[in-house]
Each structure stands twice: as C-alpha cells, then as structure tokens.
Amino acid sequence: MKRMLPLAATAIYAFLHLPLLVLAVFSVNSSRFTLWEGFSLRWYRAAFEDQQLIEATANSLLIAAVATAAAAVIGTLCAHALWKKDAPIITMSLSLSLVTPEIVAGISLLALFQWIFRFLNIHLGLHTVILAHVSFCISFVVIVVLARLRTFDNSLEEAAVDLGATEWQAFCHVTLPNLMPAIVSAALLAFTISFDDYVITSMVAGVDSETLPMVLYAIARRGANPVVNAISTIIVLALGAMILASERLKES
Fold first, then answer.
1. Which residue of 122, 144, 155, 192 shows the fewest CB atoms closer than 10 Å?
2. Quick check: helix, strand or coil at residue 29?
3. pTM of the predicted structure, to 2 decimals
C-alpha cells in the first residue's frame, strides 16, 4: 500500500494536469493542427492582435474587478455579522449557492432581471453580469472570512470598546487588520471564479457584453483554432498563480 499510494497520486495528478500540459505545448506549435512542426509564438501574437479577444478580455477584467470589490466588502460585513450573532439557518443557506447548478442559477437570475427590468425599461448588459457575479461571489467571501473570524479572539474587540473605541472603530482598527489575509484570499478566489464563469454569464449578458470565456467557446465551436490554446494557456497560468497566492494568504 505504501508503494501504491505515490503511484496512484501521480496517476491522478497526471490525469488532471496532462491535458493542460498538452494545451500549453500545442500553443507554441507552428501548425494549426495536432502535428508538431516547430516552436512558434505566432498564435500568441495572433491572440494579442485579435480585437474581439481584446474587447472580451477587457469586459472580463472589468466585470471580475467590480464584482470582486463589491463581494469582498459585502461578504466581509456579512461574515462579521454572522460571527457576532449566531444564525445557523442563514449560515447554512450560504452553501445553497455553492451547490446550486449554474444553469439553474443563470435561469433564475435571468427571470429576475427580466421581471424587474420590465418596469424599469432597462436591457441586459455589463451591469446585469456584474450583479450576477456579485450574487455568487459573496458566498465564497463569507465562507473564507467567517472561517478566519472563528479563530479570532472576540475579547480583543471588547477590550477596544472598553477603552473608549466605538464598535466601528474597534472593527476597523482591531478586527479588520487581522482579517486582511483572509479578505485578500477570498477576493482572489472570487476574481478567479468571476473571470472564469461562462454558464451564468451567457444567460444574463447583453449583445455588447461578451466576456472572454464566451468568445473562446464561440471560437472553439467553429473548429480547431490554436489561438484558443494560446489564450487558454495564459488564463491557466494567471489564474493558477492567483489561486496559489490565495492559498498562501489563507494559511497566513
């Protein structure tokens, strides 16, 4: 068993990461097909020269940045409130958005937006995508920050209040600095999830609010295109670095 366990772990990791390695290898292949013809960065140059990809990337970055900022603020305050006042039903309900299938969440949000916008005469666009992303990112922030708060000594806040600080001052000057690693970790996780989302985004996006995953999916459906390999490799490396940074901050 001791000899088989490392072999099994290696096989599982290879199964998980070998497709990504193949993707990265063929992103620097000069051929359009899965036949190695030589090293080339032509597909990376093509990706950076594609105006549609550039616009979609800008949309994805804007949506992820705004959604992450909003989710980090709202989620931190929610986590602090749940930590102060035990509410097991509300806490458990946070997990509902984590286990709900994305297609169900997307259809629900689309129905909500259509019902509300019927009275406001507003159409789908970047604003609806941002609202949708905030809705599912908040749960991740709350869970990460709440886990950190459960290791925090509540008597520190009480001591600050006894020394004359208001509850808000105690939160800002005592609790918040101790929460910063967890907040940053949760924000990086939320950014990754928001940037990568396709199903919910495709449901609530307007005609002028295509994101990078939507464009990549449309390109891939038209046939093999090495540009997809190049941009996907960049995404994997960038988001992988953010996830590693998130895990390091979560442990600190």
1. 155
2. strand
3. 0.81
